[in-house]
Design goal:
The protein has four helices and 29 strands. By secondary structure, the protein is mostly beta strands. The longest helix is centred in the C-terminal third of the chain and has 37 residues.
């Protein structure tokens, strides 16, 4: 009779072979187009051995690997072709600088808050060839009586003639030394309704008190995100600091500027708590930005965006911003997408500021991805198929080659000069019979209770404890049996 321990070892070896066979099978599936969530026909450019194809949103919202490892391009024989992953270069932009003079806004010295500029009486006068903007703090400008001393509370810039988008802005100003000053920039078409545009904090060291300190701190170039300022005024305010603002330099852009991102809408998740919205993402593709548009009219909600990959992880902050939607001059305006910096998370939480009323209804959500393209060698016969989204591919090995290996004599950005093949998303074949026409991501509830990963770990632990218990019981039983046999042997039977 063989020892029980050998039988147990054989059983463990058989289990190991079973799991390794499953891994081999999953790896084999990566080379079969039928295993992918979406398959899109690709129309090649004529007479070009090296080509490139842009990854459409339909593929990006189905990837299960943050490194795009579950993307393949198959030829007509079902074989993956040699390929490399590349980004998309930004289009070149021609920039021009425009200098705008500042028209001072005068107000009573007792005005403590810049918000007090709202709803005040405004008068613009021409004085010796200069335009002066004066604010009446009590609505009785020019009336008889004592006149309160006035000081410069801010300045106006006339940007109505700008025809091109504005990418950044620099102030020509002097401010007190040793005092951080917050400059706020707002835009308006009628000098009544103002919307926030940019903000920066600047500091000038006192050379006498700290001769080794840097001259200025803070970002003097304010990013205006290609704002359209045609027919707009700009208002610059700085609180109570004694600031002299002579003007500002605005940089306009004639090109398309930053590369255009790939966008996909998302179905509105269920809103259980007006100050907290939690949902899961069915993909692992890194997110460049998230557009949050609240429902309703004239709504403004400060929000925080947090993310995690599974329930056992704590929430990590990704970004903070203000989500708003308001109507100014008959035109609806909303906040820009919130930058997430390429975070790859499977669950997202949007928290509304406790000082706000929160969301009355689930906001509109739109996802943005950095554009990516496949550079590939036309190997074999067509038709060619772009496939993406492989279940269980979160840690799959990448099939991408370095660009220098794929493109002979490769030069930086050379991939952007290759002919473009087109992915025909209208004829996409999607596993599960989902419609191929849209790129709307389904709203999925975040994980609740114990995750599948925890169940698997607990199952393995309990199975191990059970196996150890069974081994101990069998060994104890065998020991007792051997002791009983030894006791039945007569003493004179010993050699």
């Amino acid at each position: 009779m063989k020892p029980v321990s050998l039988n147990l070892s054989a059983l463990l070896a058989a289990a190991a072979l079973f799991f390794s066979a499953g891994v081999v099978q999953a790896a084999a599936d990566a080379n079969s187009s039928a295993a992918y969530a979406i398959r899109i026909p690709v129309a090649l450019a004529a007479d070009a051995p090296l080509q490139r194809v842009m990854l459409p949103a339909e593929v990006l919202v189905r990837l299960q690997s943050p490194a795009y490892a579950d993307v393949r391009l198959f030829n007509g024989a079902g074989q993956p072709v040699p390929m490399a992953l590349a980004g998309v270069a930004a289009a070149s932009a021609q920039e021009e600088s425009v200098a705008l003079p500042a028209y001072p806004i005068l107000g009573a010295a007792s005005t403590a808050e810049t918000a007090g500029l709202e709803g005040l009486s405004l008068r613009i006068e021409e004085r010796q060839g200069q335009r002066v903007v004066q604010i009446d703090t009590n609505g009785t400008a020019g009336a008889a009586g004592a006149v309160a001393p006035q000081t410069v509370r801010g300045a106006l810039l006339d940007a109505r003639s700008l025809q091109l988008p504005v990418v950044r802005m620099a102030l020509d100003a002097d401010w007190p030394a040793g005092q951080p000053v917050t400059f706020q920039v707002q835009a308006s078409k009628d000098l009544k309704q103002w919307r926030p545009l940019a903000e920066t904090v600047l500091y000038r060291a006192d050379a006498a008190a700290a001769p080794t300190a840097p001259g200025r701190l803070g970002n003097e170039q304010m990013d205006l995100h290609r704002a359209d300022l045609k027919d707009h005024y700009l208002r610059v305010t700085w609180g109570d600091a004694a600031v002299t603002l002579r003007g500002a330099t605005l940089v306009t852009s004639r090109g398309t500027g930053p590369r255009e991102r790939v966008s996909a809408s998302m179905a509105a998740p269920a809103l259980v708590n007006p100050r907290e919205l939690v949902f899961a993402l069915p993909f692992a593709t890194p997110l460049a930005a998230l557009k949050i548009t609240p429902q309703g009219s004239n709504v403004l909600i400060p929000v925080r965006v947090l993310g995690r990959n599974h329930r056992e992880q704590p929430w990590s902050p990704l970004a903070s911003a203000v989500a708003y939607k308001m109507v100014t001059g008959g035109k609806e305006q909303s906040n820009a997408p919130i930058e997430l910096g390429g975070a790859s998370v499977r669950e997202v939480k949007i928290e509304a500021d406790a000082r706000s009323p929160g969301f009355a209804a689930a906001p509109e959500l739109a996802l943005q991805f950095e554009p990516a393209q496949l550079v590939f060698l036309v190997s074999g016969q067509g038709p060619f198929t772009l496939a993406g989204g492989l279940p269980g591919a979160s840690a799959a090995a990448s099939a991408f080659l370095p660009l220098a290996s794929l493109v002979p004599g490769y030069q930086p950005a050379q991939e952007n000069t290759l002919p473009v093949a087109l992915a025909d998303v209208a004829r996409a074949d999607i596993t599960g019979g989902q419609p191929a026409g849209g790129v709307q991501v389904a709203a999925t509830a975040a994980s609740d209770g114990v995750s599948l990963r925890s169940w698997v770990l607990w199952g393995v632990l309990l199975a191990g404890v059970g196996a150890l218990g069974l081994m101990a019981w069998l060994l104890l039983r065998q020991t007792k049996k051997q002791a009983g046999v030894a006791a039945d042997v007569p003493p004179d039977a010993a050699p």
